[in-house]
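Supplementary Methods S3. Input chains for the assembly prediction are listed below.
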Amino acid sequence: MLKLPLSRRVIVKALLLGSAAPWVITSRGFAATSCEDHIVRIASVAAPDTMNPFATWSSFWPLAFTYDFLVGVDAQRYSDRKGFAKEWSVADDNLTWTFKIWPGMKWSDGQPATARDAAFTYEYLRDSVGKPEELNVGWNNTSGLENVESIKALDDETLQIVTKIPTRWPLDNWTMIVPAHVWKNISYKDARGSFLNAPPLIGTGPMIVAEFQPGQFVRYSSNQYFRAGQPAAAGMIEQLFSSADSIAQGLKSGSLDYGAGLTAAQYADLSNDPDIAVGESPIEQRNFLAFNTSSEKGAGSTKALQDPAFRDAIGYAIDQMAIVKRALRGHAAPGVGLVMPVSTDFYSDLSDIRRHFDLAEAGRRLDAAGYRDNDGDGVREDKEGNSFQLELITGPTSGTIEMPIAAVQLIAGWLGQIGIPVSVTQLDSGALKARYADPTNGGGGWDLLVGSDWPSPAPRDLLNLGSSKVSGTRNRSYWSNEKFDKILAELDVTVDLKKSQQLVDRAARLIYAEAPYIILCYPFLLEARRKDCFDSWGTKDAVSQWGYFPLDRLRPHNG
Amino acid sequence: MASTQIGSGTSQHIGRIITRAIVTLVMVATLNFILFRIIPGDPASLLLGGARSSVTAEQMVAQQQNWGLDRPLFPDQVVDYLWATLHGDLGFSFKFRGRQVTDLILERLPATIALVGVAQLIAIAVGVMLGLYAGWRRGRAVDHIATGASLALYSTPSFWLGMILIVIFSTTLGWLPGYGAYSPGATIGSLGWLPDYLRHLALPVTAVALGLIGQYVVVARAAMSEVVTEDYMVTARAKGLTNGQMLMRHAFRNAMLPVVTLITLNLGYVVAGAITVEAVFAWPGIGGLTVEALNARDYPVLQGIFLLLGASIVVANLLADVAYGLLDPRVR
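Predicted structure tokens for the full assembly:
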């Protein structure tokens, strides 16, 4: 009989190790699931790279919690939400803007935060224009500053921006106001690249980045000098994930207070948990089918893609309602025009010209436009006599909610039914970006693209999908239209909201009729929060995607 | 005289292995460079932002110039890369805005070594013992159970095992944390840090170790099953040796040869980590860095990581060759 080589010494060692296990398992030294420490625990599917707002597009939340925008989206939408400026106005000439900065505001290190810091931030950017190290690679960038005549701090509480043309840029820019006493000694070369702005940061937001561990978490401390009073929460931890699975599990176990970017299945599961409140927030994302309209280098496999009548006919073969119900399980609004309903200031109701799903009508329109099945093989031919075989490329876009592949399969199925076979190529975000890049940068050669973007609610941004200036980056279809570009140019020099709305409506109707894009849906952001640790989440969208609200005003439960 | 010849033979054998390893490493370095440039995707456009940014063609060109991506691939970029690598300079990260690749890798390496290293040690201890015992008791119930369970574990994706472990031990029972390496705010090296770190390490280590245990059991069992049928084992039994003496003096040593090879080769994968397990547990190791770098087409970081992985596997192979040569003179 075999004897296991177990000596008395081995047994004692095993017992000692075993006795340590409960201590390790039950160690409360750093327990992550307690409400008692009053720390808000949130989660995001994100990979921040640096805390330097001049060098990154990837660290939005850490930076937005720390630094304020001068005005920003939230301050324009809600009266109880503000940024670096308390109030603002524009003179009758529509060129001279005056911003009143919060009196007595301080940076998180106790130094006064004044109009001079705001002026410094804009001047710092403006001075870099035209230099080899121009600051144009992050949230704080020089875009729009070409239209600025002067930026002056009239006193500690008054900032004046004079523009060369009437423009809403002073309200809509995405510049995070940084402290002059930190940034005045940073060279443009460093600000653009190697300066990491290592924590602890110095900002005016409610939660200041105190520690950043790439790939793990961002830890925030509450700002004792926050203009509305130190937040009631003791601090915040943003846990970084590469998928939403861990977020759902973290919410269920109680180790997270808030998580966004959930899938429909996770949302349904969490909605059954009595300790968790779920929500779906309309956001500015739009998912679309783009046609490669290029007629030169990088053109698609058929000239039909350049024909508005062909694209219009395809529009009748897309059932947006079915995409919402079947692919997104109802967590989206069906797509129509370029502007999404949540962007209330500029939303265009296109119901009078809206296409309705009708495969027979799509077939009739294709026939009428000259794209028939002449040889009776079930596949239509283009005007050159070639049978259609379109390549549809798709994949995730960084920073947006991923479109389920089921939507692409539905589209391919409908197009197949009207005699236009489609082969689907699925790519990762980097490869997709390379394929839809401007043909001069090596992109093109595809036919259809299912993708998404998430513009800001600023009118220019909403219409960029059709702007020839950003072809191959924001404009995925390479569509170029003089009339559309002219409207955009007019919009750029318009301050009046009503006139801006009219211009956006004209542009939205024009691009809808020309159909370089078929808007598929406007997905909702699925989010969930636990009820047991914090109150005052509010009734608006649970957490702003454009700032830090309402995390600045959360109160510990019964605290 | 005879010992000198043996010594010279061993030296030549090791010399050949080292030369082969160096050539392989140079090939790995060159392939690294080519491989990541074949993948579609332009780092400049990825650096210039996500879905909310507006980017012009001029900005794109400026970005390419900034990171030297506008220069010809051959010879400029490839020669620079090989020359710098030879001098231990792995370059600067695109995504992490100019940080040294070496620093980034060294920051993440300890977490991966802790995860996969501990998992390997557990798997070697449990898997090898269980496998040898199953082989020794071939055909008995313990053999059937150990072999069946091992095959099931071996064929189960470790990330799926990880998810199941999270659901059971983190979400349902609440015993252990399901993500991260330590609680935010903990001071690394402080008294409370170690138990906190071990709590975080427990589930990912288990997920990786379970898969490896299956692998070791299968190999060790097969080796032992072969050994027990050898003539010298029958002779040993005929000489009146006990089971324990036969196991420890004859069977164990002979069965360990393929097991030692597997252990040595697996050591090469300690730094390769477990990318999917790291993703499931948000473990801040080399796997997570690889995913982030891949998404950003961060060529220098990817090159650095793959060079490290290639080197560790080449070195592990080298050690396996040397060990094999020392253990079995017929190999020399």
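Confidence is low (pLDDT under 50) at residues 50-54 of chain B. Chain B touches chain A through 74 residues (CB under 8 Å).
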